[in-house]
Design goal:
The chain contains three helices and six strands. The strands form two sheets. A four-stranded mixed sheet has the order 1-2-5-6, covered by helices on one side. By secondary structure, the chain is of the alpha+beta class.
Length: about 110
């Protein structure tokens, strides 16, 4: 996820969403959400993620998300809301690829 050249190449290949499964500690959740937003902007695709939840082993913190191609968070999961359903329009990902920064040549 942190190697944004891959996100850019996925976008250039026309993907409409990038899935980022994780097992990250609760103390780092803000950082990971920023990374997910950046993946969306760089690729021009929706970014979806789930994170293993385990309060005992490594204090893994949950926090899944759906982020639109412009980096807007459409929804997140939490301990109290462990499931998320969001209706998305995949055409938005196709349209986003025609806007900055996605259209800039390498």
């Amino acid at each position: 996820m942190w190697f944004f050249e891959h996100s850019r190449s996925y976008g250039k290949a026309g993907v409409q969403f990038v899935a980022c499964p994780r097992a990250t500690p609760r103390s780092t959740l803000d950082k990971w959400l920023v990374g997910g937003r950046t993946v969306s902007v760089v690729s021009g695709a929706f970014c979806i993620s789930s994170n293993k939840y385990s309060p005992i082993d490594l204090n893994l913190g949950g926090l899944g998300w759906v982020i639109d191609p412009e980096g807007n968070v459409l929804g997140v999961t939490s301990q109290t809301n462990p499931f998320l359903t969001v209706e998305i329009d995949l055409d938005l990902a196709d349209e986003a690829k025609q806007t900055y920064p996605r259209y800039v040549p390498d």
